[in-house]
Each structure stands twice: as structure tokens, then as C-alpha cells.
Amino acid sequence: MRFEKTYSRYEPVVITGIGMLTSVGKTAESTWQSVQQGKSGVRSIAGLHGIPDDLLIGAPVELEVTQNGQLKVIALCQQAARDAIEDAEIDWSRVDRERFACAISGHMGDTEGIAEIIGLSVKTEEEVPAWHQWMPNTACSEVALEHGLLGPRSCHSTACASGLIDILSAVRRIRDGQCDLALAGSAEAINPLFAAGFRQLRVLADHQDPIRACRPFDRDRTGFVMGEGSAMFVLERLDHAVARGAHIYAELSAGAMLGEAHHVTSMAQNSDPLRYLITETLRRADMDPKEIGYINAHGTGTRQNDLVEARGIRAALGHAASDILVGANKSSIGHLVNAAGSVELALTVLSLRDGFAPPTLNLYNPDPDCDLDCVPLVGRVHRAESALKLSCAFGGHLVCMAVRRWTGIHSKSGYSDQVPSKAA
Predict the structure, then answer these.
(1) Is the CB of residue 128 less than 8 Å from the CB of residue 69?
(2) Could you tell me the pLDDT band of residue 409, with boundaries at 50, 70 and 90?
(3) Rounded Cα gap, residues 15 and 236, in angstroms
(4) DSSP per position, 95-122
(5) pLDDT for the residue numbered 423
(6) 3 pLDDT more than 50
(7) Active-site residue list
(8) Taken in order 43, 47, 50, 54, is the CA torsion positive or negative?
(9) Structure confidence at residue 4 as a pLDDT band (50, 70, 90)
(10) Strand order in the sheet with 226-227
(11) What is the pLDDT of residues 78-124, one digit of tens each?
């Protein structure tokens, strides 16, 4: 069965499937349960080429790569995509693959394989040669090929904003009529070049206890920890989702992005670009600041990001900011760089679904200059109807997404009175 190609640019775009795996869970639901309970996937990392074993803390994912030599980031994308499609209960006989888009963010290519080719390391026999996965759009191509997705493709490489930008790209492809539904998201695996670069920038956290290393919005913060994982979404035009009887998590109400034009790594200290971004997103979503109940912050745990983000939220939302909970998941799962936006958006959607705001770990000594309720240490029952997700990336890429909890037909949302138990 194929649906008629009628559409409206004002038709809501909804989430009907989520796939996610991180350092604290192999599925979307197990990750969500762990994050609610305050579990951390952060630990010391050894065996990363070029980095001394005692100098790196991160949140890696244990994943068996089935093809010898395949990049871990590609395998992460593939697993999350399969889970999202299964969660969305896609019946391929009722979906037009020519109108099924794919938007998956870019990633680091096979640098180890290229090093072998040019003689900088020992060559090994591998099923997947380096030149098959050198391009940053390899994961996007492989996922689309696996599922036969013939609709428009996009692949953005915009640092920590990549995940949200590709989701926003997919929403626009649906709204302008190029497709009916899309698979969108991103993944990240810890890469030695990235790790070395972040070390040189001195933005990586250091602590005797790795679990306590990342401390967003805490006055004793020292930086972020690198993480691994992936999140993928099945996005659909509402009438398409309803016609096939899909269950719906949430509506992606609006999104906005802008460039700061300030500095390649520093953010504008007056927070004006971030203030404008949030205000513009609310305008596009037709939301009042008082409607926002939860904000999933970029929350890296660096002094610059935390201060600028807190000021921007306060400037954009005014007095309403005092009643909003602001969470930072990087304290639990690390900074997933290219995948940060998509994974944290997934957690935001599940927060709306279950009416629960997960904790910001290690927030023992809140910075008075970050005068927001950042949910320190223990999560809370918090029945919000709308939320914002922020991403602030090197290069001046800023993105904000507004999400509404879905309570209409085929809703997958349902509040639970049971509060998740705190992890021991």
C-alpha cells in the first residue's frame, strides 16, 4: 500500500521510533532507566593509540563489531537504526521507500586504516578496507543501503551540533514534501585524534574517581569526559503515522540554528546569540516561555559553556526560567560529540513521556553564577508538557529544538507514579 503524496508544511512531524545505546544501556529503555537512577558509564580508558593509559577518562560502549575492521561508529549507527525501525513497527509493505529519507551525521573516517596504507603502522588483514569507510558519510550510506531507503539523504559534520542539525534537516525534508518519513540521528566512538585534540585544548576533566569527573554547573568543574553511543529516530508526518497506526512519542514542534561568528572554540560571553536562538525557537513553535517545563542543556562541565548557557537561558526565558528544570546528561554518559544532540534529545523525549527529570550527577556545589535548578544528584517526578534541547558546538554552531509531549491519538506517552530507585 502507498499513501497519496499530499502534505502540508504545517502538518506536525512526530517521533514514532527510538533506538539508542550508550555506556549505561544497550537499548533506549535500559539507557533511560540507568540515567534516571543516576548510574554513570564513566571510567578510566586504556589502550587508546597515542594516549597514555592513565591520562584518559571516558564513557565507552561495549559493542561487538561483527565485521573485522569495521569502524565502531558505523556499527553503533547500524544497531541504533535497527532498533528505531523495530520500535516504530515499520511494515515495509505499507511504506514507500522512495519517500523514506535518511539523515545521519558525519563521523571520523578510518584514520588507522589510512595510517597502515601509508606505512605509519603495521598492516593487518581486514574484511572492511579503509577506503570503504574513509568518508564521513559512510554510516549514513551504510544504514540507508541496509534498509533500502531511497529518499533524500543528508549528512552534516558540525561538531557537537551535528545530531540535532541532521534531525532538523530531516524534519524540513518532511515538511517540504520530499518524503513522508525519515530515519535521523548520529553516533560517536572515541577517536584517538579527537582525544589528543581535546587534551591539547585542556577541556577534558580530571579526577581521581572517574565517575565524579564530569561536573556540569558545579563550581568545581574541570571539563568534560568523552563518551560513545548512538541514537536514531523514525520521524513521520502526523497523517502518515496515523494512517499506518503508529504509536507516537512526541511532536518536534520547531527548531532553529545559527552561527555565532564569534570564535572557533569560544562562545560569546554576553550570551546574546544563545538568547536569540531560544527566543526564535519558541516563536517558531508558538510557545510561551511558561510552557517550557524542562531543558536538556548542552552542559559540558566547562566553565565557559556552563556560564554562557545559564545566562542565555535566563535572558531568553526571564522569570519563567526559575520554574524550569535544567538537566545535563553528560555527567552520566559523557560527551558524545557528534551524537550528543541525538542521544540527549532521546532522553528528553523519554523524560516527557514518563514525567521524570533525570539528575545531573556530581552537582554537589552548584555554581551561584548558574542560577538555575539543574536537578542536582537525584532525579525528580516532573510532569512537563514541553521541553527544549540545546546544542552548542565548536565553530559557533548553535541549535535548539522544541518538543511537545504527545497526548493525542496513538500516544505512546503515559505518566507513571513509580519513581525510579536511586542507584546504590
Answers:
(1) yes
(2) confident
(3) 7
(4) S-GGGEEEEE------HHHHHHHTTSS-
(5) 40
(6) no
(7) 160, 298, 335
(8) positive
(9) very low
(10) 43-44, 57-59, 226-227
(11) 999 999 999 999 999 999 999 999 999 998 767 676 666 656 555 56
pLDDT at 13 over 60: yes
Quick one: DSSP state of residue 21? E
Those residues with Cβ within 8 angstroms of residue 290's Cβ, 6 or more apart along the chain or in another chain: 320, 323
Nearest of 318, 308, 424, 329 to residue 374 by alpha carbon: 329
- Name residues whose C-beta falls within 8 Å of residue 333's C-beta, 6 or more positions apart in sequence: 22, 23, 24, 31, 35, 40, 41, 59, 227, 229, 343
Q: Could you tell me which of 93, 135, 89 has the C-alpha nearest to residue 114?
A: 135
Coil, helix or strand at residue 113: helix
* 3-state class (DSSP) for residue 401: strand
Q: Cell match 552548584: residue?
A: 366
Q: Which domains does the chain have, with CATH numbers?
A: 13-243 (3.40.47.10), 255-405 (3.40.47.10)
Lowest mean pLDDT among 120-134, 160-174, 252-266, 342-356: 120-134
**Grid coordinates standing for 2?**
502507498
User: What is the C-alpha to C-alpha distance for residues 337 and 77, in angstroms, rounded to an integer?
Assistant: 14
Query: Residue length, the chain?
Result: 424
The type of residue at 314 is R
Q: Is the pLDDT of residue 37 over 70?
A: yes
Beta bridge partners of 416: none
How far is residue 43's CA from residue 190's CA, in Å, rounded to a whole number?
A: 13
